Amino acid sequence: MQKIDDQRIKYIFRMLLDTYGAQGWWPAFTSFEIAVGAILVQNTMWRNVKVSIKNLERSGLLEPYRMYIASPQKIATAIKPSGFPRLKTDRLRNFLKFFEKFSFDFEEMKKLDTYSLRKSLLSVNGIGKETADSLLLYIFGRPVLIVDAYTERFFYRLGYSFSLSKESEKLNFVQTLGSKPDVLGEFHALIVRHSKVHCKVKPLCGECPLSDICGFGGVTHE
Description:
This protein is an all-alpha fold. The protein has a domain at about 30-140: Orthogonal Bundle (Endonuclease III, domain 1). The protein has helices at about 5-20, 30-40, 45-60, 65-70, 70-80, 85-100, 105-110, 115-120, 130-140, 150-155, 165-175, 180-195.
């Protein structure tokens, strides 16, 4: 199994970038829209979230205070395309109650160091590690690695033995990429894109741009 190697990781990033181009993540116009999207995308597809975001916008709810004072039913109706509308409404409202402590101002939240901010986000019912790290990276520009099912599968198939659930291993990976939030954000987006095109649950290894370094390729996967 592979260990983290600077040159190999950077090669993987370059190959993905050359193949798919810059992904332009996170696809949102405001920081609040990113936060809402990160909560709504839990257990659903992004295309469903896009519909919910449009509904919220049309309803005048894509603004923190307006959503904060809105009825749960109004929010649930708008976000229904994302699935679990009552549950996700509760999660959005939990985040808004937390956000109120900062006067609905992300600049106030930015004053916290990364460790404190992550700990605070994780204290919100409905925000797990993946969601918290998405907010840290794409809203606050903190150098963190987002670990989701795509990331785990991607690196496992490339032969890596490190556990991305361990904070020390995540830190090593971040340092390998120079602790640059823009690079880490792009890398995550590229992994998601690659996982949807080639590295699926049942992989399509034939034209994979990483087949030359992936021991998983060339094997029949039934």
